[in-house]
Write a structure and sequence with these properties.
By secondary structure, the protein is mostly helical. Helices cover 61% and strands 0% of the residues. It folds into two domains: 6-62, no CATH class; 70-101. It is an enzyme of class 1 (oxidoreductase).
Length: 105
């Protein structure tokens, strides 16, 4: 996972040098060297991507919340008894605390 502390299992000096092996950066340098890509194109792509991402985030934040059932339905085609129980407890919890969960994502 990228969220963990990699110093727990990697030498700090090796982590510092990992950028050398960054495949995206290496490809970018190769393409620029072959005159197939430019820094201007890079900036344009980053700006366009950032703007598209911002639109998607705004859309997601303003969308109505999904029904709690989708947390399970999108993952399991059939439930175990334990999953049925957990789903029921989650629904009960949300129903007991509707004022907190209304309009929250």
């Amino acid at each position: 996972s990228t969220s963990d502390d990699s110093t727990a299992y990697r030498d700090k000096n090796k982590i510092k040098d990992l950028h050398i092996y960054d495949g995206v950066e290496r490809l970018k340098k190769y393409l620029i060297n072959k005159k197939l890509w430019s820094e201007e194109q890079e900036k344009e792509l980053k700006d366009k991507s950032f703007n598209q991402l911002k639109i998607c985030i705004d859309k997601a934040l303003n969308a109505p919340p999904y029904p709690v059932d989708t947390l399970y339905d999108d993952v399991f085609s059939e439930y175990t008894d334990y999953q049925k129980e957990r789903k029921q407890k989650l629904v009960e919890h949300i129903n007991r605390n509707k004022e907190y969960y209304q309009n929250k994502h």
